[in-house]
Amino acid sequence: MEPQAGGSIKQWQYYDIVYYIMSQQFFEEPHFIIDRRASKKIKVKNCGQIIERLVIIVKENIEPYEKGKDEEFIAQLAKKFNIRAKEIFERYEHKMNNLEDIQKQDKNFKLMVALSVIIEYFQKRTVESVQKMLRDDLKEKFVNNSFKKSLDFLHQRADADFSLLLNIGVLMRYAKVTKIDISPKHFDKKLKVVSKKLLNSEFNH
Q1: From residue 47, how far is each of 94, 135, 138 by CA, in Å?
Q2: Measured CA angle at 144 (ends 140, 147), to 5 deg
Q3: What is the pLDDT of residues 100-125, one digit of tens each?
């Protein structure tokens, strides 16, 4: 990204909102991925560039939104993010139906809702793939349903390492969208930490 592009993007009227929603419980300047409670962070090369690129993608596709064509806006973004537009728009409509009229008229708030639905999609897919990865690697080392209990326990207590693993997984999906390289070493290292926690869980004894 050219320096002048970085300067001009920050003047964009929606920059602060889009940057905030893409970074929330996920990224800390200049190049850290954090857990959901911001108690731990890990330095990941290029993650700041990925966040900035995501903001630019939203800006480049904002025109239909400005014209009140929310479905077209979400369809364009979904195509860029390589996800199913129909599912995203249905989730968006569901959330919008639960809002007060004054919120529905707030363009900033509506944009946050649209982007949060996309982020939730990436989070959900990442959780599913990480859980499958852990289950496939470890299931033979667990008795009965102790794997599920151990995993649920990490979820419920918002374990920092598990949260970081999921966030790095989301970052790797964003990296594919933005075509910016991210080393898999951070994910692999954190996966080993979480695997060890699961194996040492009180439910597996």
Answers
A1: 31, 28, 30
A2: 65
A3: 999 999 999 999 999 999 999 999 99
Q: Give the CA distances from residue 139 to residues 50, 63, 149, 162, in Å, rounded to whole numbers and listed in that order.
A: 34, 48, 12, 17
| Count of CA atoms in the C-beta half-sphere (13 A) of 53 | 17
DSSP letter for each residue of 146-204 = HHHHHHHHHHHTT-HHHHHHHHHHHHHHHHHHHT----THHHHHHHHHHHHHHHT-GGG
- Which amino acid does the sequence have at 77? L
The C-alpha atoms of residue 113 and residue 92 are separated, in whole angstroms, by 7
List, for residues 2-49, the tens digit of each pLDDT value. Answer: 444 445 899 999 999 999 999 999 999 999 999 999 999 999 999 999
Which residue type is seen at 2? E
**In this structure, which amino acid lies at residue 169?**
G
Residue 142 is given by DSSP the state: S
Q: pTM of the predicted model, to two decimals?
A: 0.91
142-161 mean pLDDT: 88
Instruction: Tell me the C-alpha distance between 13 and 108, whole Å.
Output: 9
